[in-house]
Automatic annotation (TrEMBL):
The keyword Signal applies. The lineage of its organism: Bacteria, Pseudomonadati, Bacteroidota, Flavobacteriia, Flavobacteriales. This is TonB-dependent receptor plug domain-containing protein. It comes from Pseudotamlana haliotis. Gene3D superfamilies: 2.60.40.1930. Residues 1-20 form the signal peptide. Keywords: Signal.
Amino acid sequence: MIKKLIVGLTLAAMFSFALANHFKALVHTKLKDYAKNSYPEKIYVQTDKPYYALGDDIWFTAYLVNGVTHKRSDKSAVIYTELINEQDSIVSRRELFADHMAVAGDFKIEKNFKPGKYLLRAYTNYMRNLDESYLFQKEIVIWDVNTDTEETNTPNSSAVKKLKLDSKTAKTSEISFFPEGGNLVNGLTSKIAIKAKNNKVISGQIKDNEGNFITQFETKHFGIDLINLTPEANKTYYASVNSNGKEAKFPLPKALPNGHHLRLVNLGDRIIIKVTANHSIGLKHTYLVGHQRGHLIYEKFESNVTDEYTVILDTKQLKDGVASFTLFDNNGKPVCERLIFIDSPNNNIDVQVTLSNSKPRPREKITMHLNLKDDNGQPLAGQLSMAITDLDAIDQKTTSENIKTYLLLNSDLRGTIENPGYFFEKPNDKRRSAELDLIMLTHGWRRFKWTDLLYGPPERMKFEAEKGLYFSGYTTALESGKTRKPATARLTFMSAQVHQEQQSTATNGTFKFGPYIFNDSIQALIEARTDHFKNEKSTTNRNLSIYLDKKYYDPPKIVKKEVLKPVISDKTKITKFKTQAKAISEIDSIYLESATQLDEVLITAKMKSEAAKGTEELNERTHYGHPSKRLDLADHENFRHLPAINLIGHLPGVTTIGDSIYIRTKLVTEIYVDDSQVEVSDIIHMTGQEIDFIDVLTGVSATTYGNSGSGVIVIHTRTGMFISSNIERKPGIVNFTAHGFYSAREFYSPDYDDEFTMSGKRDLRTTLHWEPLVELSKTDKNTHEVSFFTSDSQSTYGIKIEGITENGNPFCHLSTLEVE
């Protein structure tokens, strides 16, 4: 009998050991695949300012990285950036090609934009496989400095307010409780983070179900406090808050009778990990895993019967950022999870800024040298961008979001952390490290769930990573637009040098050309033949319809959550900014008016004759005579970057709301492009680069197009070759405009050494200089030189440098420049 028992126990131990090895192998395999193959991508966007005025330019740099290593992503090279207004309309869009880790871009804020809070959104096509909260989203405030409104001029307040509670109206959502590791367990002492809604200050007491006092708390900074509690069997607990003599009760989570507990203490250079349990077999066959963005940093399988153990983990060789520790029970189920932030001094980066003149005067040239050093003074390779702004007018706070706080904190945690720069203002500050640890207790890891990673089905990626521009679609039989038919397809670019590419479609008629890399727009042609292009004598060879996919052009749903919001609280700076912006606008208007008057005096007769001639030439392209209203893009070159829908809105008497067009109050249903009738969706991605002029037809002129009592919009393209992707010009052929990547404009900075620079015009720039792309390499002197001139403002300027090293360490540098 004893021998049988021993044999049984041995077999059970062997079986458990085999299961443990299998589970460990599963964890290793899934983490390795996540880090190597299915890793997410992250984007961060630095802008030159946190807020703007109508008529301003938004200068930005977009950084695209591997979400695990924070090095350059090997997946995507295409970044979509969008400016979205409060009505959720995309008012401007840029498609950028990132051949390195970063790429420059810009948006022009038109003066007809409505002031308010805009959303700057950036993403890759591959990032769309996750929900919209994973896209980069940043709030941009735009003011109309001529007509202030209460809504757009009320700054965000970061002040912490006292909460006034009434027992009749108090809700449990006002206070949240976060036990360390996930659950309270009877008999096991646990830390509990208490989080007040909206970061409010709440003071109160923790009591048991009999009203006995246990401890007290007060949520202060970030609305968080920490208590210790050892739950007892048959007892429940609540937070008691008094306000005006009334008690409001907030129940704590109910403790489990049996379970596990995971306790971590972060000492900076090391982490103390304590694991406990009150099961009959204790921690036997449990598995502790520590990972950082998918890389395994610690593991421990407990094979003995024990109620607790302690581990000390050295963090000196770890990367900075959020690390996650998970305890699995003997069934492979995750039962405890705890986040902790690693901030190793070994990862510190020294951004060195040397000025040729530390206290320059107005309109004086400055030469700046930039380089990167590691903690040992060795040169580092990387990319960075730099904004120099007037601190009297621009509220640049050290507590605000930056590339380091975003990549290491907000992008990996659920919810948004306000003022994240606060935790990095003072290196090695114990108080702030402790507060950051409280943040780790109240925010969960957002990148994956263990149950999905280990046991879920393989992820199906609906959206592919893009290395360039692709043109895809499918062919159908001409007689039946729904019957797919295989064919031979050919793509032709009508550029200066005609480029052609040919391929056989799949059996279901699908084709895909690309990737291509080019800027601006090119007229393109896709043809299809049932046989091949050499057999043009066949009468049925062209009996095909071609449909182009639109999936690459349909933007993701706009969801305004997980948005980075600027800290705008200094009313003095805001007032200064508006005053300065208004002065700049008035100065520009005076010089524009002077230039116009001068032109009229010198060449009035010539201008009139050219205008008349131009009108006649445009009218010759129409068949309806004179339009009611016309927008000639030759007279508005600064409109060339605008979408067609925005250009239509510039016409007198025409209003656009979203993708609806109204003449006066009537909805327009008749839209034509080069005499081909189209839908609004067909012109949504056209821009002024493709358009010569737009006409509005009402009354008699509109009758040319039949029953069009609400009016007609007619768009005439620069080449006359426009055809939307779902309009068939003829069987077996479709023409369209291939939109290339956007090329960022160059930031204008006056050169006061040049005698032709307008010396009489006042220079009040709030952005003194913008340097979008600086690439530093270890192979050269590791120094980049930047030169610019100061303005007329005697002020203190903030130098904000953001970037990321070649090995994936983000950094942010803040310093000042005095102009006397």
